[in-house]
Amino acid sequence: MPRDGQSERKNDELLKLRDAALQLGISFPTIKQWIYRKKIRSVQTVGGHHRIPQSELDRLLFRTRGRTEKEREQVVRRVSGRNQLVGRIDSVRISGLMAEVRISIGGQQITSIITAGSAREMHLKPGQTAAALIKATEVMILRV
User: Fold this and answer.
1) Are 84 and 133 within 8 A, CB to CB?
2) How far apart are CA 97 and CA 117, in angstroms?
3) Distance CA 116, CA 43 (A)
4) Is 34 helix (H, G, I), strand (E, B) or coil?
5) pTM higher than 0.70
6) Alpha helix locations (H) across the chain?
7) 65-108 pLDDT, tens per residue?
8) Domains in the chain, start-ordered, CATH in brackets?
């Protein structure tokens, strides 16, 4: 599908501009300007229409969502924790009383185990924008 010869990651979904703008919480004219200014990478179809790879949205989600305090309140409920990472839900697996939710944030994955009831109550589905709230008493460092 890419006209310019760029190879896309396998299974990297290409989104229409309106859908990409909605996920990023920006307007259609803004995403067009980002394409022209090369702030966001797009590929063109044979017909010349721009499409945004899902991996590009994943890269930008945490930068665009909740940039100001007012915008952050709209994305995430007010809580005392400041370690809030916004990304896209990759998968939701419900089994018995528990649910495994995987969120892609800036090319990285966070997995959370929550109750099945909570996952159903929030209507969590792959492709939705969600935030991971990190609350821990200690952080371990591993040298890689």
Assistant:
1) yes
2) 7
3) 38
4) helix
5) no
6) 17-24, 28-36, 54-64, 69-75, 116-121
7) 545 555 545 544 556 656 778 889 999 999 999 999 999 988 88
8) 14-58 (1.10.1660.10), 74-133 (2.40.50.100)
